[in-house]
């Protein structure tokens, strides 16, 4: 087994990562809230 | 770069985070959520969306409290209801058993073929205990016991409601084949005033955790609470019209197989006598009820009784009458004897002195009524009269009423229209 090379890429500054994650979470929040309205077809002459 | 190599991306994004960064992120998230909430649209179109349309006479004596089944808000709030001070608020909670669909011209009420018993009681009652009557109609189409439980909880905590009438459906009250109707409102109990631990424990059995979490937070957030009208308007590009989703077409829906469950109920006789054959399907469904406190519907009924007792509001629970043909059906009558005994036992165990359960109405309602099927009617003045009479005899309310003279038939017209 060949040992995997570990990536040593330079980390982003926390300000960038915080912004990225916050925007993603906000998008998820909006999608879950709005997407939770499932259409329901249920009509039988009002009774 | 940030990419699909998630371990690498995660390391670049978060390797340098310290607890302080986590705290900053949480604060930022909270601020964003609060900004969304503050920016969420408000206005009449938000509160009016999803309110049911009136079938019968357009009268402001009847307030429709249930919203469209797609709207997670469930019921209108006391502020949205339009009720005022100085009136007597009577909540009438029911499934479709209070809906009348006239077949003959003489069965029409004030010219309407489709109307509710609430309309009839409202038009024939001037006052209750000296105050003008306002009926809060909690009519949920296709209601099952779990839905009636939510409506009961809502009415029990609504300050505009002074007394409560509940129509118990003899086919569905203790039926565990269906305990909730299809809706986006099932989880809403998690955010309702007065919901108890039993309700929440039960709710995890029928609602998604995410739905329960959103429902629990929704009463504190405009955006979450009003997400139905907001999403509808977004999807329709500004218009508050119908949802642009493809529905399951009716012929497709009819292809869903329904299995014959009768053989599973070995001690029940599903062979309907001749006079009951026209409602044999409903009769079989009625006989499949679970008369045990471990039954899911019975647990909803128990929760209803407990919150009614806790509210202290006078409450009348009556059973919607079955057709007169049941007198030819000893099997059904014997079952209904057990049914009423079980309901009475539960009411005495979990109810309070303010709750009056009247089970005899399943077979003893004097006067004419015309059945459309097992609980739905073409004409039902006698049931409204019975309820009015029980409001007086059981709850001690003083109703000032006019008779039904001139209100039925083709010639009778609604003066307001």
Q: Beta-sheet strand percentage of chain B?
A: 5-15%
| Silhouette of chain B | globular
> What overall geometry of chain A do the principal axes of the alpha carbons give?
rod-shaped
The end-to-end span of chain A amounts to 69 Å
Mean pLDDT, all residues of chain B: 91
Q: What share of residues of chain A is helical?
A: 40-55%
Assign a percent range to the helix content of chain B.
25-40%
Class by SSE composition of chain A: mainly alpha
**Tally of strands of chain B:** 12
> How many helices of chain B in DSSP terms?
15
Give an overview in words.
Chain A has one helix at 14-35. Chain A is mainly α and 47 residues long. The model of chain A has no long low-confidence stretch (mean pLDDT 74). Helices cover 36% and strands 12% of the residues of chain B. In chain B, the strands form 3 sheets. In chain B, strands 1, 2, 5, 6, 7, 8, 9 and 12 form an 8-stranded mixed β-sheet that branches. A two-stranded antiparallel sheet of chain B has the order 3-4. A two-stranded antiparallel ribbon of chain B has the order 10-11. In chain B, strand 5 and strand 6 (131-139) form a beta hairpin. The radius of gyration of chain B is 24 Å and the shape is globular. The model of chain B has no long low-confidence stretch (mean pLDDT 91).
Short overview:
By secondary structure, chain A is mostly helical. Helices cover 47% and strands 0% of the residues of chain A. In chain B, strands 1, 2, 5, 6, 7, 8, 9 and 12 form an eight-stranded mixed sheet that branches.
């Amino acid at each position: 087994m060949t040992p995997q090379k570990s990536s040593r890429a330079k980390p982003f500054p926390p300000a960038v990562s915080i912004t990225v994650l916050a925007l993603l979470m906000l998008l998820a929040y909006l999608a879950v809230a709005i997407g939770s309205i499932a259409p329901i077809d249920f009509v039988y002459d009002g009774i | 770069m940030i990419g699909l190599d998630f371990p690498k991306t995660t390391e670049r994004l978060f390797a340098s985070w310290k607890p302080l960064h986590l705290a900053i992120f949480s604060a930022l998230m909270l601020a964003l959520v609060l900004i969304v909430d503050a920016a969420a649209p408000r206005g009449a179109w938000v509160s009016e969306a999803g309110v049911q349309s009136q079938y019968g006479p357009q009268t402001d004596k009847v307030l429709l409290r249930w919203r469209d089944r797609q709207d997670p808000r469930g019921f209108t709030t006391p502020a949205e209801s339009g009720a005022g001070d100085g009136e007597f608020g009577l909540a009438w909670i029911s499934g479709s058993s209070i809906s009348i669909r006239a077949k003959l011209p003489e069965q029409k009420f004030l010219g309407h073929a489709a109307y509710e018993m609430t309309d009839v009681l409202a038009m024939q009652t001037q006052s209750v205990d000296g105050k003008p009557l306002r009926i809060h109609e909690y009519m949920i189409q296709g209601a099952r016991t779990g839905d009636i439980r939510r409506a009961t909880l809502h009415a029990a905590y609504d300050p505009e409601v002074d007394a409560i009438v509940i129509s118990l459906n003899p086919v569905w009250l203790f039926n565990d084949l269906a305990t909730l109707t299809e809706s986006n409102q099932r989880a809403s109990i998690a955010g309702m005033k007065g919901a108890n631990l039993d309700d929440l424990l039960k709710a995890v059995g029928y609602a998604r955790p995410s739905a329960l979490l959103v429902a629990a937070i929704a009463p504190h957030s405009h955006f979450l609470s009003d997400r139905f009208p907001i999403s509808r308007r977004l999807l329709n590009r500004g218009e508050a019209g119908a949802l642009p989703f493809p529905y399951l077409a009716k012929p497709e829906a009819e292809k869903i197989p329904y299995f014959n469950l009768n053989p599973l109920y070995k001690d029940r006789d599903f062979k309907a006598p001749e006079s009951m054959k026209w409602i044999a399907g409903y009769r079989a469904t009625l006989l499949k009820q679970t008369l045990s406190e471990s039954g899911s519907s019975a647990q909803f009924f128990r929760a209803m009784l407990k919150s009614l007792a806790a509210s202290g509001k006078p409450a009348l629970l009556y059973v919607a009458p079955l057709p007169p043909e049941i007198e030819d059906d000893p099997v059904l009558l014997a079952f209904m004897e057990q049914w009423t005994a079980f309901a009475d036992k539960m009411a005495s165990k979990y109810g309070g002195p303010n709750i009056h359960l009247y089970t005899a109405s399943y077979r003893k309602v004097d006067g004419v009524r015309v059945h459309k099927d097992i609980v739905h009617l073409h004409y039902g003045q006698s049931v409204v009269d019975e309820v009015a009479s029980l409001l007086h005899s059981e709850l001690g309310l003083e109703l000032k009423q006019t008779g039904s003279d001139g209100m039925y038939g083709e010639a009778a017209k609604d003066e307001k229209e």
